[in-house]
Design goal:
Number of strands: 3
Shape: elongated
Distance between the termini: 66 Å
Number of helices: 1
Strand order of the largest sheet: 1-2-3
Structural class: alpha+beta
Oligomer: single chain
Order of helices and strands: EEEH
Helix content: 10-25%
Strand content: 25-35%
Amino acid sequence: MFTLQYAKNPIWNSDDGQHILLTVKWEEFNEEMPFSATSYDPEPWGVDLYNRAVAGEFGEISPYVAPIQPVINFEPTPTNAE
């Protein structure tokens, strides 16, 4: 288990309200890193982070923003048109 120094910037990471993306800093690592907390994480500390985020301990949770789907163009592109 890791020792949490802090967590910040919570963002809903799914449209069903089951994932919260956090920026976390563990004492055992030199840098901040992303962590996706869920209510059903197999590790108790993952569930704890989720519950603490929902309770507002790490700030207001920013709304979920769905990813933009890429537009795929199936039109052929001429290569050496003469």
